[in-house]
User: Fold these one by one.
Assistant:
Number 1:
Amino acid sequence: MNDPDVSAFLTTEETAQLLGFSPGELDQLRRKRKISAEPFRKNWWHFFPEFRYSERAVLDFHWSDTASDFNNVESSPLVRMANCIIVEALQNAASDIHVEPDRRNLRVRFRINGTLHEIMAIPKHITDPLTRRYLLMAKTSNPFNLGSLQTGIIRICSQRRYYDIRLSSMPSRYGAKLVMRLLPGPAPTRWEELGMSDAQAAQTADLLQSGVPGLTLFAAPQGEGLTTMFRCALFNANRPEHNLYFLDDIADFPAAGITRVLLDPANGMTAAEAVRAAKRQGATLIVFGEITDRETARVAVETAESGLSVWAGVRVPGFEMNSTPRSSVRILWTRFQGFGIAPERLEPVLRGAVMARLIRTLCPDCKEGIPVSDPEAFQIETHGVVAPSVVFQAKGCDLCRKTGYRNRTGLFALYTGSPMGYDRSSFAQGAVSLFASGEADAAELCRLRVWTRA
């Protein structure tokens, strides 16, 4: 799919063909507000989640299981529907697309600002053909086997911007469930773009000097910016004089100058074998995309103990918003204990950690200002921030899907091992600063447990 914006949208006739209706029946459904065409985009159809389809209406739909049919590039309604869903996700700034079959239909949801929204329900007869189309686009190992776990990458160009879409497929009772993670390019180049303060960005750059022996961890809860941190860090470390190796089980966000190693234990490419080969090739930095098991944790620590510079990603259940960076890093020690690495072994080799949370920011088009209350002013100043006279709260408009929030930004805590050499700012201080500057509201701070409402 080279440019989904050009050929994605479905005409009335194509929509009718996919749904198993005549154009006249489709027009009746539109008048009954069961299906809608957006007035500013007349050839793109919304399938309302509450609409349920008659199985008798779609008995004549057939699709053969051959690659030539699925790759009839950009010409068939099915292919264009697959493109259409991706285009809609991009235009809604979604981070994930969930395509999940249930008993009666195929549900499509987008994750926008960290929250899943149901977008459409598609007739069940399209489930397998649409799933196979996405698997083909991702170049998975066997796109016609819907009963196995599969991963792959879809690469597209839309509005002159490139995107990597990381796809994972999992078999379920009613068919294969797909989740597609949208990774916009190019990668962020400055830590300030992710939400770091100038002081934190300078400290992070110092911590991530390539070639310094030891283990540096990147940590965040699931879906809260771990991949984005890695992309920024690798962009800044990717220099001609460095020999970088990135080890992971999926080859997303590639970059020239970085050797991407696809781990595949079933075929002998384990983390230990990959590290052994990288050492023979003179690696200056070895990066583990994510530590998920005891073996990978052991290899990462042993590699750092051998004198190499090692980075590794770790998912954590969550960081306490008001805890200090030194307290937050203890969660990582506990995580590694679960992998069989004792704290007394981890601490000497740990150079530092970059820890992140995400906070929703207010929609700039509809946020409304209100006078700051005395309890809010007190709590703001308790965190070392000057209280403003006016703060903002979410309202909701069409541009933010009536939520009042648009986009997310990062909250960071840094640990460098030295008691005098790291920024002591907590996640809560970053969140309160955003509240005081009008970028976040009190409801979001309560959701993140920065404070409770007075």
Number 2:
Amino acid sequence: MLALLVFMPLTYCTMFLPGNVAEWLVAEEHPIEALGVLGLLAGTVVCFVMWWEVRGDPAWPRLRRISLLGFGLLLFILAGEEESWGQRLLGIETPPSISEINAQHETNLHNLTALHAINSYTLFASLLFAVGVLPPVLGLWAGPRRRLEKFMPILPIALSTMFIYNQVLYWGFHRLFIRIPAAYHATYPCAYSLGEIKETFGELVLGLGFVFILAKRRHHRRSIDEVVPVARPTGHSR
């Protein structure tokens, strides 16, 4: 958690770097975007692994187990959309029929011209609030937590503060660059670079949330096994 507290503002500070460096860092398939995609893919794998581990666990209600499959699929789709389903990495050309209706001529859904009335950054921020902020905050009270845990895993409250921290950093740097536009040297629009960095950390923290849930569950299981040793069948005496 401390690493995120330090690393997040440092990443926003890359916008002060010379234009060519700042542009390279925030470009498609480059370090900043890749960090978010790795977080989503890690969360995807963890959701499916956790579903496999809890599939027969009576402590996990059926709907909560199923929700792991839903979250795993959601994170996988988000990662695929972020990377345009690997088309640039694999050198695959966008089919003409898709290129004509995609604002960036990519193989993805979020850049379709028909959806341009929808702000993808706002939509993603709403998703993060609905999954990463609201449930952990409501989960601070026993009653709401019991109801929520019937149908979804709840991310750690400490991580929900990271979503808020990320948003505050975004607002702060946005205001700074409005007041001092000369501090930003890249040719990309400032709002684009800020949005990409904010989105990356949202993706990373979301993926880490499920990693922490799995780690906590495994630690809890180990603690139980240490306190209550597994019973071994006794042999018949001769």
Number 3:
Amino acid sequence: MSSYQVPTAQAPARDTFGASLTGEGPAINYLCGDCNSKVSLKRGDPIRCKECGHRVLYKERTKR
């Protein structure tokens, strides 16, 4: 019986749709709840306003 061998190279993490989880993809626009400035965030970015540091962000409505 052989013992378990740890893999040496990991495959890149992928989500359900095949996109990499490393921050690729479009930036989503949010509005700061405190200073009302626009904040664009990508996957993995800290949820924090870049102007005032407030952590409550509201997603903008989509334009249909």
Number 4:
Amino acid sequence: MKKNYLLTFIALLVMHLSIGQSDLYQDSPPDFIDADRFSVEAVSDSDPDQQKEIDGFKMYPNPVTNGLLTITSNRNLTKNIRIYNVLGKEVMRTTLTTTNTLNVSTLVPGVYLLKVTEANSQSIRKLVIK
């Protein structure tokens, strides 16, 4: 019996991060996939538990070349910052309260995921350090 999967949003949960979006059409999983090693979760846009995007969220410059990243939003409230490397390991955790500037000069050049939480809203972006 063939199973057809149509997922409009795939969230690969690594440290509770949404990694990406995709459509998946698959008759059966490939042989190299061990279903017990990871999970795939379909999330609807109307999911009441899904956090909304931070209103007016901006981060710049990206890529960062001088070690300083500016993070702003319309509400400009306290922001909890977490930065993860491509393996999902948290490499930085801090809080921005009175400033919008984050010093990322201790991070080695590469690609990271930036997770910003402000009140009940959350934004996740790719961050590039040069």
